[in-house]
Design goal:
Residues 1-31 form the signal peptide. Keywords: Signal. It is a single chain. The protein has 237 residues and is an alpha+beta fold. It has helices at 10-21, 108-113, 120-125, 129-133, 189-198, 216-223, and strands spanning 3-4, 46-54, 59-67, 72-76, 81-87, 90-97, 102-106, 136-143, 146-152, 158-163, 168-174, 177-186, 202-205. The protein contains six helices and 13 strands. A hairpin with a 4-residue loop joins strand 3 and strand 4. The longest helix is centred in the first third of the chain and has 12 residues, at 10-21.
Amino acid sequence: MKFFVSSFNVTRFLSLLIVTCGIAFNTTAQAGYCKPQKLKSGCSPFAADYFVANPQTQQFQPMQVWYTDQGTFYKKANGELTSWHPKGKKLKFNRWITDSKLVIEYEASDLASLGQNVSWEQVRGLLASKKLDTLHQAETMQWNRHNARRLTNNDHSYQVELIDQYQIPARVIQNGQPTMVLARLYQTEEVVGWLAQLSTFDRMDYADLGDSESDPRVAKLIHQGFVPGHASHSHGH
């Protein structure tokens, strides 16, 4: 599903989206939810549905985020599924190849070699903590019965409406135009079902892909340029 919206009606479109979808927000906090900034074993997973805009093309696409006790999962409109998982003080990244039932696992050393320097706060809250640190509070507000704060920079060219309970953005505005909007925040059995399916996937280390070309699934990925430079990569264990 794609939305092409001219700069003239971006705000109107997102306002309508919030009105039609916002009723699905949970209106009361549940103690058993997986808090975005804190993982607790056995907590109930919940999902956040976003629409994210490309400021250059004014194209909006849906993105679903799952908050679970295993990590944070991102599911894009094209079906691409990725996830981030805390491992001590570092992060691990997984790319799920759903049609092949295969998951490629990236250790912290892999991410470092690929120039991926991402914090857990950014993964869980969708925004870089360094970016948020440059903002100051403009006002408190309500977002579909959730307490929220509007944060802004000095010239108001960048604003974030942050839901206090979950510390995730309800809306991001750049140069007067919304670029990210939260449509729904909810608990869903879909996440539980997906996690059960993902637990059956074959797991493969990113660093070992070059030695696994005999696997047709891996050969296909390499042929598609899925992991450039994989053959010369190593963990350095």
